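Thread: quick sanity check before group meeting

JM: Hey all, I'm pulling together slides for Thursday and realized we never actually wrote out the predicted structure for the chain we discussed last week. Dropping the sequence here so it's in one place. If anyone has concerns about the input, flag it before I start.
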Amino acid sequence: MKTLVNLLFLLLALVPFTFAQGSIADSIASLPPCAISCLVTAVKASPCTLTNQTCICTNSALQGSVEACVFKTCTVKEGLTTKNTTMTTCGAPIRSKVKLGRTVGITLGCVSAIFVATRIGYKLAVSRTELGWDDYFIVITFMFGIPNTILIDRGTFMSGLGQDIWTVPFAEITRFVRFFYVLEIFYFLELALLKLSLLFFYERIFPARNIKRVMWATIIFNCVFGLTFVIVAIFQCRPISHYWDKWDGEHEGKCININALAWANAAISIALDIWMLAIPLSQLVHLKLAWKKKIGVAMMFFVGTFVTVVSILRLQSLVSFANSHNPTWDQWDVSNWSTIEINVGIMCACMPAMRVILVRLFPKVLGTTTNASYHAKYGNRSQDLVKSGFSAHVGKSKNGTGNASVINYTKTFEVQHGDNDEEVLVQMNDLGNKGKVTSNHSSEISL
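JM (edit): ok, ran it. Output follows.
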């Protein structure tokens, strides 16, 4: 975060003003001495007078002159005080995105909670299947998401996020930056945990040895990636407190390039998302499934691309991250997109389990059935077929007379459906014993 003095009159030329009825003399008297000196000097060199409020508020050359002077002579806090007085005197509108931000955070937090609770509750209470590592990690991700949502709602928004910084008390600015520091660490941690949940899901449904090796290599990389950024985020400033103290320019300390840290994390995360999507799609062509089933499975994996799209959209909010002159306003976008990314990621990770639940609830709408009819002519080899497990009886011709050369064979077989059929994509016959429903099908073969 650069010195906030630079924000003093940065936006004055861009804001359409309606003018307040207050006394211009009272406003000037409330300015810090350094700002008054700058204003008097700039007015003398302009066509305006100190009593002409309209001219002072609309003359861009005068504003630029005052801005340059305040940059050199005033402290950050004096600059913020001047900015607040100037904007108030010139009738600039008070902006706020607090309500929108809180609505987005609470809504997405509740929806992701419903997804996780439904997924885990179904497995434990209905299908009675054992939880896998992917289930444990989605729960851990959500458990970190709860305090994250609370910190955003009751911390950053209550400390000025979504408002112009010159309208926020100095103590609240420090409190806002401290909360933002914690949220940055939480974001790096939740992102890594979310990817682990998806990776363990892939590792479970693709049992081929070569794919398992690729998955475990990716899991190890993701762990190193997440742990590295969490540690760097914690110790990015020396002392650590300099992260939230440096905004006023009155404290000693040193920080790494925070903007570069945010961009590096985003770039690696997006590249890892693309790699994680390529792994299951590369195996889809080898699965012995009907083409409709393959499309359904592919769509299940493509749901995860929405998170990648959100990550890419979030990059735009990082353009001015850590370099903003109005951080409480500009970093609203970073906070908002990060909230969307994590919560939508949790929902996408729960999609395969949610589809199994929906198929069970609405089998006629979402289920799939296959009817097969087999016809073959084997002559008089009925004895061999009966030994193979077929039951035989003499059929009748169309005119009702018996015909020894036509025999009807009926075979009864069982098809087992399991709640994890949607997940076991490669070894479809290895279904275990839990969560299965058995149905009988009869196929009549005419020979």
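AS: nice. The CA atoms of residues 1 and 324 lie 6 Å apart. The longest strand covers residues 402-418.
JM: adding both to the slides.
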